[in-house]
UniProtKB/TrEMBL annotation, chain A:
The lineage of its organism: Bacteria, Bacillati, Actinomycetota, Actinomycetes, Catenulisporales. It comes from Catenulispora pinistramenti. This is Ferredoxin. It holds the Pfam family Fer4_15. It comes from the Bacteria. Gene3D superfamilies: 3.30.70.20.
Automatic annotation (TrEMBL), chain B:
It comes from the Bacteria. Residues 409-429 are annotated as: Disordered. This is Respiratory-chain NADH dehydrogenase domain 51 kDa subunit. It holds the Pfam family Complex1_51K. Belongs to the complex I 51 kDa subunit family. InterPro entries: Nuo51_FMN-bd, Nuo51_FMN-bd_sf, Nuop51_4Fe4S-bd, Nuop51_4Fe4S-bd_sf. It comes from Catenulispora pinistramenti. The keyword Iron applies. Keywords: 4Fe-4S, Iron, Iron-sulfur, Metal-binding. PANTHER family: NADH-QUINONE OXIDOREDUCTASE SUBUNIT F. Residues 39-201 form the NADH-ubiquinone oxidoreductase 51kDa subunit FMN-binding domain. Residues 313-394 form the NADH-ubiquinone oxidoreductase 51kDa subunit iron-sulphur binding domain.
Length: 76, 429
């Protein structure tokens, strides 16, 4: 029986995002800064031990541009 | 081409309904399942730029729309400044497109369709009214169709922009998901297809998948409309078989009118290929991608050996930067920065600008809501690789002789767009 694995990945809505960069300060482990202060997201799933930081970054975004999307995949 | 023209088979400047039916036969009375099946087996791919398999898109929209019903958008905007094929098709063979709209709508279960064209083409609107009147008189079982005018901007004809506009908003791209095929006009799954794609569909459904595949190559079947421009003897719109070599494509327009250095393949969403590489490349989406370019909307622009490819590209880059919808940070900041760096490289020279372009490009590609910035970055970077020798000359010795020549690539309203910077070369990059 393959086990199910739940992936949580960061996603930004580029139209909503205003480049406040608050999320970058909140979660530098996986969000870095581009030359114009907009966030560059690490495309890999957020490791479990960093999930609370990721959730915090989502809550500090003043325009609700940052989300965590969940997807399931099978783990061998 | 061996099989002869298909889309343009009537040869008429305007094929009225009688001429259209004489040439192509009547509108088929086929049902949805049959249409999707034929289009899938035909191997038809979208002619609007992305070369997505049309049959798969039909099946997806039809599946999503089972309960709600669907909407169809025929994209006739032709946002690419150098393209002329959609307007040519709409003018010469409107009934083939209108047949395609009705068959496409039937396939996905749409009870309403929109034909989107750029605003300010009153002659085209009158002609479409005439064609629709001919069909009403003949009592054709057409889907209800609204012709919609779209603002004359590059990103206004991107598919989510059209959905946005038809839902009462501005013609600006929307964040995805949902994509139009999931949720589009009035919340319904929406099929967006280029008008040539729909005309091709109308022929495939009439004559079958085997007939469709009797032109072109196994992985790129059929014919395609191309706009050939720049330094060719007879610029214009031509119908060719997919898979011809680049050299044979240029020969269709009478061949180069002077020695060439490169061809811009795929329009302003495409890339430069040096003339020798272009001559050998097969004209298919896959073949051009393998060479580093794209089929795009079938636009091929030949650049004379004596032109400055960097300056030509800088003008287009300024235009594309000016056409950003200014909604996404990396696009609204990144495209002007890249365009300015290329402009400085072309008109002033120096070592810094090419480095700036290489450093900034990864921060722009894939970071907008739509693919507008991706296309612009690809075009700019293709200039750096294909004109590498010129980049070195400009870096070491400043601008080249090519700047003396007037630019040949078309950019709309040059008084505004070629001069986002007020016509001056930016001071700093
Ligand atoms: C910035 C931008 C502009 C576009 N403009 C056009 C256009 O003018 N006409 C068109 O057919 N497709 C255009 N497209 C592609 C459409 O979004 C869409 O993919 C296409 O209409 C689908 O039709 P097809 O599958 O028949 O190619 C554009 C895409 C982008 C990113
Ligand atoms: S906090 Fe929100 S608006 Fe600010 S950069 Fe991050 S995602 Fe964008
Ligand atoms: S990527 Fe650029 S053109 Fe596309 S929606 Fe964002 S700002 Fe507009």
């Amino acid at each position: 029986m393959p086990r199910r694995q739940r992936d949580r990945t960061l996603r930004v809505d580029p139209i909503k995002c205003e480049g406040h960069a608050l999320c970058i300060e909140a979660f530098p482990e996986m969000i870095t800064r581009d030359p114009w202060n907009y966030p560059v997201l690490n495309p890999h799933p957020v490791p479990d031990h960093l999930l609370r930081h990721a959730e915090h970054a989502v809550t500090v975004c003043p325009v609700l541009a940052l989300r965590i999307v969940t997807s399931d995949r099978e783990r061998k | 081409m061996s099989a002869g023209p298909r889309l343009t088979a009537t040869g008429a400047a305007y094929a009225d309904l009688a001429a259209h039916v004489r040439c192509h036969g009547p509108l088929p009375a086929t049902d949805a399942a049959h249409i999707i099946d034929i289009v899938e087996r035909s191997g038809l791919t979208g002619r609007g730029g992305a070369a997505f398999p049309t049959g798969r898109k039909l099946r997806t929209v039809a599946g999503n729309a089972r309960r709600s019903g669907a909407v169809l958008i025929a994209n006739g905007c032709e946002g690419e400044p150098a393209s002329a094929k959609d307007r040519s098709m709409l003018t010469k063979a409107p009934h083939l497109i209108l047949d395609g709209i009705t068959l496409g709508a039937r396939a996905v279960g749409a009870d309403h369709a929109y034909l989107c064209v750029h605003e300010g083409q009153d002659d085209l609107l009158r002609m479409l009214q005439r064609a629709q009147a001919e069909r009403r008189t003949a009592g054709l079982p057409d889907v209800e169709l609204t012709v919609t005018e779209v603002p004359n901007r590059y990103v206004a004809s991107e598919e989510s922009s059209l959905v946005h506009l038809l839902n009462g908003g501005p013609a600006l791209p929307l964040s995805t998901p949902p994509r139009p095929f999931e949720r589009g006009v009035r919340g319904r799954p929406t099929l967006v297809d280029n008008v040539e794609t729909l005309a091709q569909l109308a022929l495939a459904v009439r004559h079958g998948a085997d007939w469709f595949r009797s032109a072109g190559t196994p992985d790129a079947p059929g014919t395609v409309l191309v706009t050939l421009g720049g330094a060719v003897a007879a610029p214009g719109v031509y119908e060719v078989e997919l898979g011809v070599a680049g050299a044979d494509l240029l020969a269709v327009a009478g061949g180069p009118s002077e020695p060439l250095q490169a061809v811009l393949a795929g329009g302003y969403f495409g890339a430069w290929l040096r003339a020798d590489r272009f001559a050998a490349a097969p004209i298919t989406s896959r073949g051009l991608q393998a060479a580093g370019a794209a089929m795009g909307a079938g636009i091929f622009l030949a650049l004379p050996a004596t032109s400055c490819g960097l300056a030509e590209t800088a003008r287009i880059a300024q235009y594309l930067a000016e056409q950003s919808a200014n909604q996404c940070g990396p696009c609204l900041n990144g495209l002007p920065a890249l365009a300015d760096a290329l402009t400085v490289l072309a008109h002033r020279g120096g070592r810094k600008p090419a480095g700036t372009i290489t450093a900034l490009s990864p921060y722009v590609t894939g970071r907008g809501a739509c693919r507008h910035p991706d296309g612009a970055v690809r075009l700019i970077n293709s200039a750096l690789t294909e004109f590498a020798a010129d980049v070195r000359t400009h870096a070491q010795r400043g601008p080249c002789q090519g700047l003396r020549r007037a630019p040949i690539l078309p950019v709309p309203t040059p008084e505004r767009t070629a001069t986002r910077t007020g016509g001056r070369v930016p001071a700093e990059v």
